[in-house]
Automatic annotation (TrEMBL):
It comes from Phaeodactylibacter xiamenensis. Pfam families: GFO_IDH_MocA, GFO_IDH_MocA_C2. Gene3D superfamilies: Dihydrodipicolinate Reductase, domain 2, NAD(P)-binding Rossmann-like Domain. Residues 38-154 form the Gfo/Idh/MocA-like oxidoreductase N-terminal domain. It comes from the Bacteria. GO terms for molecular function: nucleotide binding. Residues 199-285 form the Gfo/Idh/MocA-like oxidoreductase bacterial type C-terminal domain. This is Oxidoreductase.
């Protein structure tokens, strides 16, 4: 038993009390609106801490992080909360006391923590990207239906006014039919395009490295992986696209009712076996969809850019005006006009109508609280009559599939073709069994007597097997779907 757990349990015993979850207090199998949720946080050193702060009107009863140095500030925020390194032990010890779980771990462990919590009947709030892979997203959408728990992905712009303006303006026909869309981000702002370190320094005493690795393939510890820099590595993160796509692609996905693409293709700066590239471009091809409001939804070509790449500037935008904001944005090219919004769908405007924006139609529900508290509200409502949180898994899991499948386009770009996508079966259909791709495994450059010397090594990989593993990655022994 750790010190905080001992103090907490001793204090409860001295008071002659037993901690009872609010689901029991309500007596109705759900949390009454007047009750407070008992919330546990898993992965609380970064965004998890911020999310908990935005719901600290509730009871924060347990905190879990594999790195107690990185999580120390959050532990100090809630001195009465029990602390753990292994979320599974936390659930074993305190499962009856926990109503809901906030997941802020690295991408590669989002699924295992979330799925276990949902199977235990806990409501879940999960940082973006929802999962590391397409298959994991599909599974979480299925689990949400089966368990009926309240869910939310942490793409906070989905609760903002901007995304509602974008949707309502487009659905009202303000820019006509949209056949071309672009979205971009300035990320990565961390190192990418990296080779695996060869040094094997000692693991810090505050970090449980085995738990950090989780379901990923084993590798020795190195500070290049954590904290935070895990985003760059294919085994742990999803690169700039995974980091910001769920924010910036969100208004595109929602306003255009995108669903599954039929194909995609990608190109990038050098891609290697270990780490996402420094800059990339991915184009998705979506078929015609059903009409939304007053406007038809024809087939659309959607292109994503990161690493500083940008789309061509549209006609009519003033010289010197940046596209979106410094962090990124999205641009809808319609038959009657062009709509641009910033990161998180903020500050939308129609080019040439900056001083004459369309009126809101109020077709979409407005979130009057925060993204986090909208989820808390949903947790407290009976599932039979619940108004789901704005980015519940029924919406955010399909969005996340589109985001992370973009990495398939990048990792398989050596096939040099548009990749045809079978969304129902989660596979690329135009890869032959015996096709191979060559991917850089090491790239060295030196200058000898004024002359350049290149030493680039390649790994030759079966393309179909790689595709299957990127869509549903194999888990390390001891970790299950």
């Amino acid at each position: 038993m750790d010190r905080r757990t001992f103090i907490r349990q001793a204090g409860v015993a001295a008071a002659g009390m037993t901690i009872v979850p609010s689901t029991v207090v309500s007596g109705l199998g759900h949390v009454m609106p007047s009750d407070k949720l008992n919330i546990a946080g898993v992965g609380v050193g970064g965004m998890g801490r911020s999310n908990l702060r935005n719901m600290n009107s509730q009871n924060i009863v347990a905190l879990c992080d594999v790195d107690w140095k990185y999580a120390a500030k959050c532990f100090n925020d809630y001195p009465d909360a029990a602390v753990y390194k292994d979320y599974r032990r936390m659930m074993d010890d305190m499962g009856d006391e926990i109503d809901a779980v906030v997941v802020g771990t690295p991408d590669h462990t989002h699924y295992v923590v979330t799925a276990d919590a949902m199977r235990a009947g806990k409501h879940v709030y999960v940082q973006k990207p929802l999962t590391h892979s397409v298959y994991e997203s599909r599974m979480l959408a299925k689990l949400a239906k089966e368990t009926g728990v309240a869910t939310q992905m942490g793409n906070q712009g989905n609760s903002g006014e901007g995304i509602r303006q974008v949707c309502e303006w487009i659905w009202n026909g303000e820019i006509g039919e949209v056949k071309e869309v672009h979205a971009w981000t300035n990320r990565p702002i961390w190192p990418q395009g990296l080779e695996r370190p060869t040094e094997t320094p000692s693991v810090p005493p505050t970090l449980d490295w085995d738990l950090f690795i989780g379901p990923a393939k084993w590798r020795p510890y190195h500070p290049a992986y954590t904290p935070w820099n895990w985003r760059a590595w294919w085994d742990f993160g999803t690169g700039a696209l995974g980091d910001m796509g769920c924010h910036i692609i969100d208004p595109v996905f929602k306003a255009l009712n995108l669903g599954q693409p039929t194909a995609f293709e990608g190109s990038s700066s050098q891609v290697n076996t270990e780490s996402a590239p420094i800059a990339e471009k991915v184009t998705y091809y979506f078929p015609e969809r059903k009409k939304m409001g007053k406007v038809n939804m024809p087939a659309v070509e959607f292109t994503w850019y990161d690493g500083g790449l940008l789309p061509d500037r549209p006609k009519g935008i003033p010289e010197g005006k940046i596209l979106g904001d410094g962090g990124g944005g999205a641009m809808f090219v319609g038959s009657k006009g062009t709509l641009i919004c910033s990161t998180y769908a903020r500050d939308p405007y129609i080019v040439g109508r900056e001083n004459d924006p369309p009126k809101a139609t109020n077709e979409l529900r407005r979130v009057e609280t925060s993204h986090e508290m909208d989820w808390v509200r949903a947790c407290k409502e009976d599932k039979s009559s619940r108004t789901e949180a704005s980015s519940h898994f029924g919406y955010s899991a399909p969005l996340n599939e589109v985001v992370v499948m973009g990495n398939l386009a990048i990792r398989l770009q050596d096939l040099k073709r548009k990749l045809e996508w079978d969304g129902a079966n989660m596979k690329i259909t135009n890869i032959a069994d015996d096709e191979e791709i060559r991917v850089v495994s090491s790239d060295k450059f030196t200058v000898v007597d004024g002359d350049p010397r290149f030493d680039t090594q390649y790994a030759t990989i079966n393309a179909k097997q790689a595709m299957e593993e990127y869509i549903k990655r194999p888990y390390r022994k001891g970790w299950n779907y």
